[in-house]
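User: Quick sanity check before I run a bigger batch. Here is a single chain. Can you write out its predicted 3D structure?
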Amino acid sequence: MARRLLLLCAGYVLLLAAGWWTSAATPSSAVRRTPALLSPEARLLALERDNGCLDTASPAAIQSWPDWAAAHIAGGDIAPSRVVSDPYPTLHSVAVDADHDRVIVTDPNRHAIWAYERTASSKGAEAVTALAGIRGPSTGMMFIAAVALDPRAKEIYTVDNDIGDRLMVFPYDVDGNVKPKRVLSVPHQAWGISINPARREIAVSVEGPREIVVYAQDASGTDRPLRMIRGPKTGLGDPHGVVFDGVNNEIVVANHGNQNGRQTAPGSVSGGRRGGGEGGAAPIVGGRFEEPSITVYPGEATGDVAPVRRIQGTKTGLNWPMAISVDAAHDEVAVANSGDSSIRIFGRAADGDVAPVRVIKGPRTGIRGPMGVAIDAKNDELWIANYGDHTALVFARTASGDVAPRRILRNAPEGAPTVGFGNPGAVAYDSKRDEILVPN
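Assistant: Done. Predicted structure follows.
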């Protein structure tokens, strides 16, 4: 017992000596206070200082890179333990210029636009090399969505969706990290875009505010819209695909049906920035889900107007309708039905709860979560951009049922997985199921 007491006393003496030596060897100004004892403001300041995030000058003693081994927090220039990402382009929307044999696709994953020969296809499992790729910080592109082409001017139009709030125009012949030819500020959550060459106007669909905004085709900067379609009579509900049909002078819109809790401001152009509202947020009236639909308006429609036709109901099979394409020569409308991985073709003059005249769907088609669709009436073909796969598919215009495509354009090796991200804004960990949840 006496021996144990002697060892305990000796250890206590050694600890005291070590503490005195450390205190004597370390200047009092260099002693780091325990973060838990600091106020929230002081604790935040300490974290910012340790991470080199302060703009104000720091004492010379802490201007060097922090000693992470001794720091009270982890950090520094370290690699993540693992990454979930898609190294290949993700195809969103597609547009075809049959006169110049050019196909353009948008890629929100790499913030890029890719150009291909119209007849390009993969012979096997290999990816097709693009003719050109517009990509880089100078382009200003972020989470881009729809694409439209002006074959006469040889211009490419695209819009930023959840971030960016810009419409950008690029010439056909550019490649790489280039600035847009023109930039136009548009309302937040723009998705679809279409050019009416007869009127020299462009229509842009805007999701949350549930509106169609029409600009002069050469608008740029902060130019205001010419007119807007919005209000409770319009039937717009989370609009996505839009076609400004210059032959029939109509605006055709694909709606998801979501009515968020904000009341839609009726009327046409407001004085707000980029055509948006003024005077603060719209009043909350409660949200609801309506059936998806395709609504049609006159080309000169403005304000709170009812559609002249509406395709809606159980017979339509509409489920997350994304892009749409109008074939004025054959009086048909094709819809990329992302919810059930199908393409649904309706008569252009269809109205009410009607079934499509044709449906392309099934395992042989290779259609997976389509976002884009484009009818090439000149070459009798129908193009599809798969968001759930690294492919663009080409079918005969009159294809129906579970049929194989004529051509497959791959932008990644066959079988390369897609993560399915669509501008993720958050992440959560489910400890019960050991899963990472990513809302998009």
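The longest strand covers residues 144-150.

User: Great, the batch can go ahead then.
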